[in-house]
Amino acid sequence: MDEPRVGLFVDGPNVFREEFDVDLDDVRERARQKGCLAVHRLYLDDGAPPELLRAAEACGFEVVVTSGDVDVKLAVDATEFVADGSLDTLVVVSRDTDFKPVVEAASRRGLRTVAIAPGSHGSSDALANAVHEAVTLE
Q1: How many domains does the chain divide into?
Q2: 94, 114 in Cβ contact below 8 A?
Q3: What's the pLDDT tens digit per position in 93-121?
């Protein structure tokens, strides 16, 4: 059997904060444990530091920069991937409850869902309870 196709969607402004020490390589490796990365995107706002963009691209991430709400863009993109059937597993890296409807929709369509949070003090209980697996980065 082929490896599951994994979509990794990272909410940059929510995860890359001073109080968290998030390593993009660690995030990517955690998602790779779930299967083959079909897509791995980091969403940032237009105020993101250029060093973060370069580091993300060096780690192989597709960087999506938006002048609007990062959450909306990430949610729409993730939902499109869920709807088109190109994924088996949806991984969302965030502390944001706003992504609960996305993971619920993915689950209804038969996808495995994973939420990765940047530390236990940064996790969303609502998001963690909506997914099949909640992972906390330490």
Answers
A1: 1
A2: no
A3: 998 888 999 999 999 999 999 999 887 66
